[in-house]
Design brief:
The chain is an alpha+beta fold. It has three domains: 105 residues, no CATH class; 51 residues; 93 residues, no CATH class. The chain is 62% helix and 14% strand.
């Protein structure tokens, strides 16, 4: 299971939990928690300790950027609104009109009868009633703000999940790259030191000079040493002559110093030396 597969296993649950969260901090925490679970599941599939540490670093980078600044947010603003009082019933409006007309009629009557003081009082009452009606209407139209203005920010959930999809797929690619680089590094570390190869060549040269009885006794120990170093000794033949420096010989063909190659990729680590009959050597040189 790669990082993307582990993320897909947690994505549905995270998608269900986000609508219940009320602020951006809570959403960021939920995302980091889900990524921690994905990290654990991804690392559980690896046996290489070095690669597990590298995976942990990759996920740490991703979790610290869970704010994901490139993900847009949805803004909801709660703003003041215009509110109106409940409209008065038609009966109350009619009573106001009747009272106003009655006061107006009383004022005209007092004026006609010459009751000046009463007329003045009636006129003042009519003016006060008219002013009260106009003022009440203006008050009802005044803006009444809410207790407070609120602005809420939420990340664009679809874009958030698209970003995390791309990031986990990128982590899978990085894991493959790290695995390849680790193998290459381990291969370089596993190659024997050139100075050690030269010492081994000296031992093999001495082994070729010993008699058969001594050669058999020491050969097994030398073979175990070569196995532990991941290298092999190659003795001369016409097929592998390219691994040797060929010296002409009058009477016999003999390996003087075996060639040393890497056991895995058969790369030449130390060129051998062989004494070869003159006719065979001439054939090699003609080729």
């Amino acid at each position: 299971m790669g990082a993307y597969d582990a993320w897909c296993a947690h994505k549905h649950k995270l998608r269900q939990s986000i609508p219940d969260l009320t602020d951006g901090a809570g959403i960021a925490y939920a995302v980091r928690h889900a990524l921690a679970q994905v990290e654990q599941n991804t690392m559980a599939q690896q046996t290489d300790d070095l690669l597990r540490q590298q995976i942990g670093i990759l996920f740490s980078c991703l979790k610290t950027s869970a704010g994901l600044l490139d993900v847009s947010v949805t803004t909801t603003a709660w703003v003041p609104v215009i509110t109106h009082e409940k409209q008065k019933s038609p009966m109350i409006r009619a009573l106001w009109v009747i009272g106003f007309l009655a006061m107006l009629a009383g004022g005209l009557y007092c004026y006609a009868k010459g009751l000046w003081i009463v007329w003045v009082l009636q006129a003042v009452a009519v003016g006060a009633a008219a002013w009260a009606l106009l003022l009440g209407r203006k008050q009802r139209k005044k803006e009444r703000p809410m207790d407070q203005v609120k602005v809420t920010l939420r990340p664009d959930e679809e874009k958030l999940f698209r970003v995390l999809d791309a990031q986990t797929q990128a982590i899978d690619r990085y894991i493959n790259d790290f695995e390849y680089l680790n193998q290459q590094h381990a291969g370089r570390e596993g190659t024997a030191d050139p100075r050690m190869i030269a010492r081994v060549a000296d031992i093999l040269e001495a082994l070729c000079e010993w008699d058969d009885e001594t050669n058999v006794a020491a050969g097994a120990a030398v073979e175990r040493m070569l196995d532990s170093m991941g290298i092999s000794a190659v003795y001369y033949s016409a097929e592998n002559a390219h691994l040797f420096t060929v010296l002409p010989s009058k009477d016999q063909t003999k390996t003087m110093v075996p060639a040393i190659v890497d056991r895995d990729d058969h790369r030449l680590l130390h060129r051998g030396v062989a004494a070869v009959k003159m006719e065979e050597a001439d054939a090699i040189y003609r080729i």
